[in-house]
Design goal:
Low-confidence stretches: 15-39
Order of helices and strands: HHEEHEHEEHEHHEHEHEHEHEHEHHHH
Helix content: 40-55%
Number of helices: 16
Distance between the termini: 63 Å
Oligomer: single chain
Mean pLDDT: 85
Number of strands: 12
Shape: flat
Strand content: 5-15%
């Protein structure tokens, strides 16, 4: 802590240029008092940028392994997290400071509650073409002969490499890639490490297949192997191939005892709820050398006791009202917003409000669905993640989403819920919430009136029963 404090004091003395200090403010920081803001709520990202400085894009490699060479070899996608001001006066330790600050500000904006469990220690290195800088021990390496400005004046970007599976099984890169907090991923990986078998159970649309693939890739790369069809095998279960599944698992179990190098590292069993009898399926799967098994199932009640007692499975509930799905939509949309701001060099206060409002609409609808039906039929994030980062386009997108996707779904689910459970509460039209909280300031009366209302009779309430307190 003392060393960190001394380093921080030294960096503060280096950054003496007041305009540079102002320009490296984070995307979440409030505007400086002398900023001018237009009626549309837009402002430049770095309004006080020095005349001789340039903006350099700061990226983070996406992927869980954490190897820079693999990222370059596979031409891995990157995520834009900030734009840094680099001037001819910039020194390498100043750039180190800007990179660290840019990353810290980004994760705090994406996930204000937990910051995804990431911090400065999550950064392994950053790269500018062939130049490598290690954040944790920059003092041990001689700085490049060229200045930062000279190295980046040809249009080069700064790319951060986070610690990953190849760094003693670190989960930082996986947390950043998936937008799932590190503590939650740690629980999943711990269960797999201890028991080798988990089943992700929950309603459709809660990210079970996505999570099973990401966990599989992490486990394989942690073992130092490549992710391919021989190390990760996915078996999609249906009513017709139950016998094939049982034979396949028995074959793997036999191979594990004779030559474990010939079996996959991870087996993903998708749609296990379609198996006729789960205990029977795993009867021949007993070898302690068997690969990791990750199953997905679209229901929370089945042969849980038998599988846990006799086959060592552990169950992980995936639900829209629980993390990681509960906050995933907000984190995803904020990531899209930051990338959009960095590309155009401007912030838009109204677009920020829209990004925060979309998850509120989903939460409001899910509360309604839980009241009149159950949590099993709540909305996942998949319908909302495609929100465009443009005022006019996003307005049209939401109008179509509401009228042609959300309203028909809510009406069907509520009608079925009333048929199964009865009228458990008075009906409140969700369109009222949408209209009252509508975030687009340029909305005209025609736009508001275009939203389809859901009347009591549309979902099974009898309008003739005026004396019914539930109506």
């Amino acid at each position: 802590m003392l060393n960190l404090k001394q380093d921080n004091e030294r960096l503060q003395k280096i950054v003496t240029n007041q305009s540079l200090q102002s320009s490296c403010s984070s995307l979440q920081s409030p505007p400086v008092s002398n900023h001018t803001q237009s009626d549309e709520g837009t402002e430049a990202l770095l309004p006080s940028l020095d005349s001789d400085a340039m903006l350099v894009q700061l990226n983070v490699f996406l992927g869980s392994h954490g190897s820079y060479n693999k990222y370059k070899e596979n031409k891995t996608k990157t995520c834009i997290i900030s734009a840094l001001p680099i001037s001819p006066k910039s020194k390498w330790d100043m750039v180190d400071h800007l990179v660290v600050k840019g990353f810290k500000d980004y994760v705090e904006r994406i996930d204000p509650m937990t910051k995804l469990g990431l911090c400065v220690d999550s950064i392994w290195s950053y790269h500018i073409d062939d130049i490598i800088r290690y954040i944790s021990n920059t003092k041990e390496y001689k700085p490049p002969d060229k200045s930062p400005y000279e190295c980046m004046m040809n249009g080069s970007n700064i790319s951060i490499c986070l610690k990953g599976a190849m760094h003693s099984g670190s989960l930082d890169a996986l947390a950043f890639d998936t937008l799932i907090p590190k503590s939650i991923l740690q629980r999943y990986v711990s269960l797999l490490s201890e028991h080798h078998r988990i089943i992700l159970c929950g309603p459709s649309g809660t990210g079970k297949s996505y999570l099973s693939n990401k966990l599989s890739e992490f486990l394989v790369m942690k073992m130092g192997k490549e992710c391919n069809s021989s190390t990760i095998v996915t078996f999609s279960v249906d009513e017709k191939n139950n016998k094939d599944l049982q034979q396949y698992l028995s074959k793997i179990s036999d191979q594990a005892d004779s030559d474990s190098s010939q079996i996959p590292c991870v087996v993903i069993l998708d749609n296990l709820h379609k198996a006729l009898s789960l205990p029977d399926v795993f009867n021949g799967f007993q070898s302690p050398k068997c690969p990791y098994i990750i199953g997905t199932i679209n229901q929370s009640t089945c042969s849980t006791t038998s599988l846990q007692l006799h086959h060592n499975f552990r169950w992980v509930l995936c639900a829209n009202h629980m993390e990681p799905m509960k906050g995933f939509l907000g984190r995803h949309l904020r990531r899209k917003l930051v990338e959009h701001e960095c590309r155009i060099g401007q912030r838009n206060a109204q677009l920020k409000r829209i990004v925060e409002w979309i998850p509120e609409v989903r939460n409001h609808l899910n509360q309604l669905l839980e009241i009149h039906s159950s949590s099993e039929v709540t909305l996942g994030p998949i319908l909302f993640v495609s929100c465009p980062m443009d005022l006019e386009t996003s307005q049209m997108w939401f109008s179509d989403l509401w009228n042609y996707s959300l309203v028909p779904y809510v009406m069907d689910i509520v009608r079925e819920g009333i048929r199964l459970y009865g009228k458990r509460a008075a009906w409140k039209d969700p369109a009222s919430f949408v209209i009252q909280s509508y975030p687009w300031s340029n909305a005209v009366h025609k736009t508001i009136e275009s939203f389809i209302r859901i009347r009591p009779e549309d979902v099974g309430y009898d309008i003739e029963q005026d004396n019914d307190p539930l109506v």
